[in-house]
Amino acid sequence: MKSNLPTKPDDVVDRDREWGLLADFLADPDPAMRLGIVSGRRRHGKSYLLQALSEQVDGLYVTAVREEGRLPAIQRFSDAVAVRAGLRPGSLRLTDWRDVLSNALDVTARAPHPMLVIDELPYLLQHSPEIPGLLQQLYDERQRGARPGDGPGPRLILCGSAMSVMHELLSGTKPLRGRAVVDLRLGPFDYRGSRAFWQIEDPLTALKVHAVLGGAPGYRPVAARPHPDDGFDAWLARTLLDPGRAVYSRTETEYLLREDPRITQHTLYYDTLTAIANGATTPSKIGAALERPRNAVGHPLDVLESTGYIQREQDILRTRHPVITLADPVIRFNQLITLPQAAAVEQGFAEQVWQQAAPTFNSKILGPHFEDLARDFTRRYAHALLPSGLPGPVGTTEVADQAARTKHEVDVIALAAGERPQTPRARIALLGEAKATAARRGTGDLQRLEHIRALLAEQGYDTDNATLALYSLHGFYPDLTELAARRDDVLLVDLPTLYGE
């Protein structure tokens, strides 16, 4: 069966796991209908992946259009079905979605891999909310009608960028709940994969590009010229700070927020995102920044979390209010850099604005992003360097120091494999500090981690095999390097190590 799987073409970069999952889905010989859901943020490459897969198996790929009404959408889908059946466009006069969907499934069933993709489904649901219910009926009918010995049944993939809409398709009492065998949420490339995709030589430039664009592959076609290696500052001024470019951060943020139909009061959501970008990390602090009561920001925060624009990070060791942060680098850049100086940017002073914004970029974007990548490195790659191998959950924590009447923030903490967060006396695999400041790290930073390790041991945690890790953007002093070489419990991670060089 594996030899019959569609082969991933060379132009589909990375995505081996995702391609394999979808290829297995198509190769299932069961004669009954099967359903798959693919969701992901804008520019993550969902359509590119599904178009490539559809071409490999001669499937039917149809995408919805945001501005299209119900009747034009039905006719355009009907024309796609007609062409797939070898007829002229316009020869099918279907008047409702049940007929359209039934004919589409029947037409694709003639292929060895009967694949039907409906992309950007949320656009259709705005004017045709009955579609999931109709698909439920068609799905159930094709379960009862399937007979052993028949060829594989239709394989339907529903795709969309409005994350909250896509996730609700399979929730609660929704018609399609319990019917999907694939629920693929396509994320961005990780920071190493993103650097390789952009073909960036300098690791510091790669880090900065990732700090402002993340790993969404869809940005490279619209922001690769000039190339970041030719000078990050000039590249930034001619991309995210250029109102004439498609990737201008103010325009891109507006597009991102429009993806979810529930985001209607744009001013409220913009202000909420700005408050979070400036360091408001709890509902109370966000409400105070907006001069609104705490309960007034609950719904906007829930919407932003369901769309993937913010995230709530739980303390690994203790139960306390989660820390709210921005999950999208483009939005973070827009709220902190572009919006405060939007008038000057749009008058052509991008370079001057960028020079003035350098302290904000370093402290509120590059620094936090380096900490994020330190945690990502620990999850994905540190197992090759840790004595205990693959760690368990990775995150952040605060450690109380009663004697000093203070708390120590820990940038990176990893529990041992098999441990669960917020469990008393958990085994700790790693304690780390990540700094993107210009200064190199020294023995004083290591002593701070040793003190925190001792505090955790006093509080009942098992730190006997805890590695102390220092992540530095600009390297380490020689005395620390020499000390680390003599100790098995110290790990130094500089920028080349972070990128696997």
> Which structural category fits the helices and strands?
alpha/beta
Kindly report the spatial arrangement of strands forming the biggest sheet.
2-3-4-1-5
In terms of quaternary structure, the protein is: single chain
Radius of gyration: 26 Å
Could you tell me how far the N terminus lies from the C terminus, measured between alpha carbons in angstroms? Answer: 38 Å
Tell me what portion of residues adopts beta-strand conformation: 5-15%
Overall shape: it is: globular
Low-confidence stretches: none
Number of contiguous helices: 22
Give average pLDDT, whole number: 94
Give the helix proportion (percent range): 40-55%
Number of strands: 12
Q: Strand count, sense and closure of the main sheet?
A: 5 strands, parallel
